[in-house]
Design a protein that fits this description.
The chain has helices spanning 14-23, 31-39, 46-52, 64-71, 75-102, 134-142, 149-152, and strands spanning 2-7, 28-30, 57-58, 61-62, 107-111, 126-129. With 153 residues, the chain is of the alpha/beta class. 19% of the residues are buried.
């Protein structure tokens, strides 16, 4: 089975590209969705996150704003968070690929925003980079809930 890495910055069109692959009946693994599942109520990442970042998990729910503030501008804190999440996401990725192989798919897509930053590109047979003009990217990102020009810049 061939594995294609799909990557690109925020607002560049990764979701549109992933939808194109899905419409062609090519299975797509979304790393961001895996992170959300891991951080959701009952998710496997909650306990380790709560230990590493006290106060960010209350009543079994992650306060994403508090976690974002805890890692923003703190490279060591971000590294701690990545050390928790990346192995878990990678395990889900491996399980996804195993299911796709068992189902007889000849091609699978891994939608991973930090593909190059994490060295994941080395595991791919090919990489697709979603890209858009800066003005289009800005418009898309600012249309997201909770996003502001200050936060974007």
């Amino acid at each position: 089975m061939r594995v294609i890495g799909l990557t690109g910055g925020i607002g560049m069109g990764k979701s549109t590209a992933a939808a194109f692959f899905r419409r062609a009946r090519i299975p797509v693994f979304a790393a961001d969705a895996a992170v959300h599942r891991l951080q959701a109520r009952g998710g496997r990442a909650l306990r380790p996150i709560a230990r590493a970042f006290p106060g960010t998990v209350r009543d079994g729910v992650l306060d994403r704003g508090l976690l974002r503030n805890a890692v923003l501008g703190d490279r060591a804190a971000l590294s701690r968070l990545e050390a928790i999440l990346h192995p878990m996401v990678r395990a889900e990725e491996r399980a996804f690929l195993a299911r796709a192989r068992r189902a007889g798919h000849r091609l699978a897509v891994l939608d991973i925003p930090l593909l190059f930053e994490t060295g994941g590109h080395a595991r791919m047979d090919a990489v697709v980079v979603a890209s858009a003009p800066e003005a289009v990217q800005r418009e898309r990102v600012l249309a997201r809930p909770g996003m502001s020009p200050e936060r974007l810049d």
